[in-house]
Amino acid sequence: MVLDGPVGVEQRGGRKRARGSERGSSSRPCAIDPSFFNTYLFICVFRLHVAEIDELPRGSPLERPLHAKRRRLWTPPSSDPVPLSTTGPTSSELDIVEEVEPEIVVANEIAPTCSSALTPSPPALYVEVMADDVASTPRHHQSLQRRSFQRRRRRCDADIEAALNYGSENDSSCDEDEEGPPIMIPRTLQQDLMDTPEDDVLDEVLPPSSNPSIASTAETMMPHDFFDFQWESFPNPPISPNVRREVFSVENVGPTIPVTDPYLTFREIWDEEIMGHIVQQTNIYAQQVAAAMMENNSLCPSSRISYWKDTNEDEILVYFAIILAMGVVVKSKLVDYWSTDGSIFATPAFSTHMSLKRFQLLNACLHFSNNNDMCVESLSPSEAKMFKIAPIIEHCNKRFQALFVLNQNLALDESLLQWKGWLSINQFIPNKAAAVGIKTYELCDSETGYLWRFEVHAHKKATAAQPASILDASTPAIVLRLLKGLENHGYTVWMDNFYNSPALARSLKSNGFDVVGTLRTNRQFVPDELTQLTKAAMRPGQIAGFTSGDVDVLVWRDQNRVATISTYHGNATTIVEGKTKPIVVADYNIMMGGVDKKDGMLAIYPVERKRTRVWYKKFFRRLLNVSVLNSYIIYKKSPQQVTHRHDHRSFRTQLITSILDRHSKKQSVSLADQPAVRFEAHSHYLMEHPPMQGKWTKKLRRKCCICNTLTRFYCAGCNKTVCMHPCFPSLHTY
């Protein structure tokens, strides 16, 4: 089927009601005034063609699911076997028919006239049509579309075809050399085919799409018109994706060190160098806090900092182990972990390794950078904001990259650490679980979820003038920084529409990468035909696209309009669970979840869930949690662990136990041996504290030595404050 005119119009200015749509008016077509063409901007040009799905080439996904889906089988309640249908042909009646390749069509053929609107034409742009009863992806705006579905019935193919050819019978006498009038779509059909907004909210103004055949001077900064995209239809026969894909040349992927124990794996990340740095900076910060309180005359004997004593590496590791244990044993309050009341909720093991007061003191004094070394004048705004946590970020990035060699498929996405307090670097992402917090750009292994490199979103650079190159913009620069050092090895980068663009895809392709992901069609260099192809112009199941040789752009009409970009997939389709879809979509659904997989595994053990007033200490807990997950992935993928491997929970419990066994000095709960003392009843009796002398006579009360309750009694023989009952009898009972 070939469109004989534009499939929709966009009005310049305010929105006007369609002629003849009012109640009681005629719905017959009327003559088109010549001024109509000056009032409207046509969306589709005449080189846009459509074709049926049977003419599209078939292919198979290159990626395999990481985990096979499990399905329950329904068994009939009756014991009798269910007879199978025998209406179809048997195996002996089936004939093997060779698939006919689709014909290639030149895109510059003459547009058909109104009289030949029903005559099909060979395709130059492929469109895939699916059955209406095939399940599709869930809708993002279910409530809005559910209401519209209840008001209007679903349009069938006959209704849409009749609407597209609306009014062609009265104009069939026009000459073939004359251009046909624009197609008027009834208002009811326009409401059914109304486009929906993009799912993601843009955080910056995107450049408008331009015709790729006419490149401006700013767009051709690279030699030989590097960004001059010549969009054409897909070749016939199609080129295999395996031929177009970059060859992966990395050997020995996985861990770079032999691993035999969870503790040793964890210590490869948190080595003596970084632990010594944390110990040194924590002790310095505690002394600075005490000195500042002494200068302000706010230091008193009851101050918590007055009980400070310098920490060491063993104590900091025990502190790490207790934090990790809080992620395994989840409680609502911090003090509940040190409960020793003997109830079923008690956890006395925490108090045997560290007291509550010491843990709170380490929480307050934990530090990573010397405040005296901070010079605001010599730091950029981004560096100044990340100064307190910068040594830990730099160390983790270095160790994460040194301990693991990535597989071919890489997922680049953002992650969000929830922070509800005021923070200048806070970001709001509504489709994330945290919604608001500290955003990090992360490069993860798609297969395992291993975090290889990350960058914190700390500051947006103020750009007074336009960047010197397209790739100097903030988003492409982030991608290039995260992929630095991986060039010319055949890696495939999977990204969403926040990062992807034809310019970035071509640049990465020239550096030995492959790029696959979703795309925003208002990006620069996207073909105008796809930019202006709205959701209303496509039926569910149709696809359309172009290729420039190294970059492929497709638009697929599922429940919403989905645009994809790839450097090797082409326009082939496949059947996944009974539904036909492009192979680029099938592979994207498998390989894009690397960052989400990491976040899901971390959410089971919420180490950073505990509230704190300092944002960088919560971010440090996130890095500590990620380091344990990376240690588990290294341990799991190590060839030395083929006989016995721990699951994630047992790995964490064994790691915590090993740290405490090696570095903790358990506090003895048994009383020290005392010399035998003869109890003399006549010398041990209760007495009352004398009243306080002052303006008002008030009895003196002190804490009981056993239950800490305020009481006015004490033992005359022991000189200890003790309650009358039941503490006094228990104090003198052997």
TrEMBL record:
Annotated spans, Disordered: 1-28, 71-92
InterPro entries xrefs: PGBD (IPR029526)
Origin: domain of life: Eukaryota
Domain PiggyBac transposable element-derived protein: from-to ranges: 261-632
Signal peptide: none
PANTHER family for this protein: PIGGYBAC TRANSPOSABLE ELEMENT-DERIVED PROTEIN 4 (PTHR46599:SF3)
Name of the protein in question: PiggyBac transposable element-derived protein domain-containing protein
Source species of the chain: Loxostege sticticalis (Beet webworm moth)
